[in-house]
UniProtKB/TrEMBL annotation:
Record flagged with keyword Lipoprotein: no
Biased segments, Low complexity type: 790-811
Region (Disordered), start-end ranges: 393-419, 726-821
Gene Ontology CC terms: cell outer membrane; type II protein secretion system complex
Family recorded in the similarity comment: Belongs to the bacterial secretin family. GSP D subfamily.
PANTHER family in the cross-refs: PROBABLE GENERAL SECRETION PATHWAY PROTEIN D, SECRETIN GSPD-RELATED
Gene3D superfamilies noted in UniProt: 3.30.1370.120
Any one GO biological process: protein secretion by the type II secretion system
Organism of this sequence: Comamonas serinivorans
Organism superkingdom: Bacteria
Pfam families linked to this entry: Secretin, Secretin_N, type_II_gspD_N0
NCBIfam families linked: type_II_gspD
Name of the molecule in the record: Type II secretion system protein GspD
Stretches assigned to the NolW-like domain: 157-215, 220-317, 328-452
Length: 821
């Protein structure tokens, strides 16, 4: 039996199921047909005559201008589920059905009416929530990755995993079909679409995605070239073929130094952020067979590429000036043209039957010694004769203007000439196509971007010394004629006779000269005890005892750093260029004499020379020479004495690791004693007739090295900016204190760097795994962290952990950035 439901605001349905009386049925029809009114109360019906609404029963809806929260309460009663209405949801809706509907149909009608008002109902954790449509995507709890559930007008999240089509390519197609307040996102790693929208709309989108996600790509095919060079033709086609059907001409080009066999994605332009490039038409040159490997997005694209290849793979016109050969200009991106030309000539000379001649810039001399070939440079005419033979052990002399030719044989010569143009850093090759293809493959391998190595050295030196002196001097005067005593002058004790004479002279005549003489012989540093006894009649006894202990400590840390290319030597010198006298001469002319001296200047300070070489497994071989020198104090220009500590070694270090190159740990001890024979050996009393001195010192010197490989420009820029900001921080921390009397209150500070550009996508080039070696991943530079406690030997700190304040500068505190762990 069908019951009618009417839920005015503030009223209760009160309908009962079963066999109601005719009176109750009539009252219910009146309630369903009357307009909603806040003044309408259910008290007009007798409690026993109100029909009761039961969950799951079919009802006829007749809500006119009803408040949304009132209709929501009726739906909650009908479905038996809790319904929560967000406080931001306000307004009225019309919900009318001409025929009885089930509770599920009633809910769908309610949800559809909410959508027209800009609201949505989401279901999560057994609870229905009515919220604004813009907030529904944040509260939906239903996530599905398979078939779209038939949830009607509810907002759910659906994941579509694509097998053939690119997820990024479908976003602009599906975006207009999704509600403005809902979202569509791409997961590039899984090639999936994540869409949050109404369930009925997601069912339509699922049919669209299923129709578009089909395998239209052609199989991989190999196109053999007859005349063109594969590595030259692939970039040309990449620039001419459109991508994705957008009609724009491509602007991308192969990356600098790309190796042969690199995959070329035919792209119209740099893809937008998040774009997927895995499903584009790709073209890969195969230099060994001079072929192109093609995989097109569809058959039409494959036919277009094949037609373009056929039009470009045509024989080149003969050059009458060079025996029908071809002239090619190869612009280098990373290698040096002059150096590479020498290598190519040597390689060409080793080819069987090749007649290779090479020139360089006018007047330049380049050569390879002891290789069985004379390598020369200079402008050479095309018909220049052979200038050397290729026999093993031939002279390796360097000359101006000769050509390079392989040993002649009975086979016909194919010819070949290589020239370097330093002004444009280009290689000019004049050779037949087979020879050029081989040389071009070599050029592509050698013209790769070389990695850089940042080298950080730590030179730590700790000195500790302790000196102790003890001595007693006795002086006796007998009458006016005899004086006897001891005199131990070991550099720290004072001569008692000199002290007594100076005091007597000052006592007799207190002049300034005698006062200066007295000051010059006063006891030195330490504890000095002076005493004497006057026995009368000119007999006197004087005593001078000296006690001194001296301790010293030194802590020197140097952190030279430098950046260099792989297999290129770098050198840094920090110090002074000191003149050393090498000789003196005197010239005499007429009656005058002209003496003069000759000098040779030498670097005194810190010197570091390093040549890094990156191996295939990511380790770094370092050829190192490190020197730390200083001038010894107390020497003059005519006879400087330098303290020199140097290390020369070759080591292999992992990228980012610290290695100790070596060092010196020195512990010295010396003792000296001056005494009066016999008397100085008497126990206890003998100490009055002797002077002792002991010296002990320790010196620790250690040298550490840490290389960091920087394989691309973005990584080098990131590393450089970190060091830039570190120096900027030190400058800001060392600003002078404000002063009124000396109004120079600010020192220079490095300006802030502009934001770094986002690196370009590296998906344009995919290295051929068969022809490449993947190096070990480069570790990022270690972030400096302070040690738990101050190390016994300085390992990178110029400040002590405790703060200290100087008299004229700002407070200097412990800086953890100076430590390297």
């Amino acid at each position: 039996m069908t019951k009618h439901l009417h839920r005015p605001r503030g009223a209760s349905t009160g309908l009962r199921m079963g066999s109601p009386s005719p009176l109750a049925r009539a009252l219910a029809l009146v309630m369903l047909s009357a307009p909603l009114s806040l003044g309408m109360a259910p008290a007009a019906l007798a409690a026993g005559d109100q029909p009761e609404l039961r969950r799951g029963a079919s009802v006829t809806l007749n809500f006119m201008n009803a408040e949304i929260d009132a209709v929501a309460r009726a739906v909650a009663t009908l479905t038996g589920r809790n319904v929560v209405v967000d406080p931001r949801v306000k307004g009225t809706i019309n919900l009318v059905s001409t025929n009885p509907v089930t509770p599920g149909e009633a809910v769908q009608m309610f949800v559809q009416q909410l959508r027209t008002q800009g609201f949505a109902m989401v279901f999560a954790n057994g609870l229905y929530t009515v919220v604004p449509e813009a907030e529904a995507k944040l509260q939906t709890g239903s996530v599905s990755a398979g078939k779209v559930p038939a949830a009607g007008g509810q907002i759910i999240t659906q994941i579509f995993r694509l097998n053939h089509e690119s997820a990024a390519n479908l976003v602009p197609v599906l975006r207009p079909l999704i509600s403005p307040n809902n979202t569509i996102n791409v997961s590039p790693s899984t090639n999936a679409l994540i869409i949050t929208d109404y369930a009925d709309n997601l069912q339509r989108i699922a049919r669209i995605v299923g129709t578009l996600d089909v395998n239209n790509a052609t199989s991989v095919e190999v196109i053999k070239l007859r005349h063109a060079v594969a590595s030259d033709l692939a970039p040309v086609i990449m620039r001419l073929v459109e991508s994705g059907g957008n009609g724009n001409l491509p602007t991308a080009s192969p990356a600098a130094g790309s190796a042969p066999g690199a995959q070329v994605n035919i792209a119209a332009a740099a893809p937008a952020s998040g774009a997927d490039t895995a499903y584009r038409t790709t073209l890969m040159p195969e230099p060994r067979s001079n072929s192109l490997i093609l995989r097109a997005a569809n058959a039409a694209k494959a036919a277009q590429v094949r037609d373009l290849i056929a039009k470009l793979d045509q024989p080149a016109e003969s050059n009458s000036g060079y025996m029908g050969g071809n002239i090619h200009v190869v612009h280098l991106k990373n290698a040096d043209a002059a150096k590479l030309a020498v290598t190519l000539r040597a390689a060409l000379a080793s080819l069987p039957g090749a007649n290779a001649s090479g020139t360089g810039t006018a007047g330049a001399q380049q050569g390879v010694a002891n290789t069985g070939a004379n390598v020369g440079a200079g402008v050479v005419p095309a018909n220049a004769s052979a200038g050397m033979t290729g026999n093993t052990g031939a002279s390796g002399s360097i000359s101006t203007g000769p050509t390079i030719n392989a040993a002649s044989n009975n086979q016909p010569s194919t010819g070949g000439q290589i020239q370097a143009d330093p002004s444009t850093n280009s290689i000019i090759i004049s050779a037949p196509e087979p020879v050029y293809r081989q040389l071009r493959a070599v050029i592509d391998r050698l013209d790769e971007r070389r990695a850089q190595v940042y080298i950080e050295a730590l030179i730590a030196e700790v000195n500790d010394s302790l000196d102790a002196d003890f001595g007693v001097q006795l002086q006796a005067v007998l009458g006016n004629a005899v004086a006897i005593g001891t005199n131990f002058n070991n550099g720290t004790s004072t001569n008692l006779l000199q002290l007594a004479a100076a005091a007597a002279a000052y006592g007799n005549n207190g002049s300034s000269t005698n006062l200066n003489n007295l000051g010059s012989v006063l006891p030195g540093p330490g504890t000095n005890m002076i005493g004497g006894v006057d026995f009368g009649s000119g007999n006197k006894l004087g005593v001078l005892a000296n006690f001194l202990q001296t301790s010293g400590a030194g802590n020197v840390l140097s952190r030279p750093t430098l950046l260099t290319l792989d297999n290129e030597e770098a050198r840094i010198v920090v110090g002074q260029n000191v003149p050393f006298v090498t000789g003196s001469y005197t010239t005499t002319s007429n009656s005058s004499t002209n003496p003069f001296q000759t000098y040779e200047r030498q670097d005194v300070g810190l010197t570091l020379r390093v040549r890094p070489q990156i191996s295939e497994d990511g380790t770094v071989k370092l050829v190192i020479y490190q020197e730390a020198s200083s001038l010894q104090s107390g020497t003059t220009a005519s006879g400087y004495i330098t303290n020199k500590r140097s290390i020369e070694s070759s080591v292999v270090v992992d990228d980012g690791s610290i290695v100790v190159l070596g060092g010196l740990m020195q512990d010295t001890y010396s003792e000296s004693e001056d005494k009066v024979p016999v008397l100085g050996d008497v126990p206890i009393v003998g100490n009055l007739f002797k002077s002792r001195s002991r010296t002990g010192s320790k010196s620790n010197l250690m040298v550490f090295l840490r290389p960091v490989v920087l394989r691309d420009g973005y990584q080098a820029d990131e590393f450089s900016q970190g060091r830039y900001q570190e120096m900027q921080t030190h400058q800001r921390a060392s600003q002078p204190r404000p002063s009124v009397s000396t109004p120079v209150n600010r020192s220079a500070v490095l300006p802030d760097l502009p934001p770094r550009p986002i690196p370009e996508s590296t998906s344009k080039l995919v290295v051929d795994p068969a022809n490449s070696v993947t190096p070990a991943p480069s570790r990022q530079p270690l972030k400096p962290t302070p040690p738990a406690a101050l190390p016994t030997a300085p390992y990178g700190a110029d400040y002590s952990p405790s703060s200290r304040t100087s008299g004229t500068g700002p407070s200097e505190r412990y800086d953890p950035s100076l430590y390297v762990n």
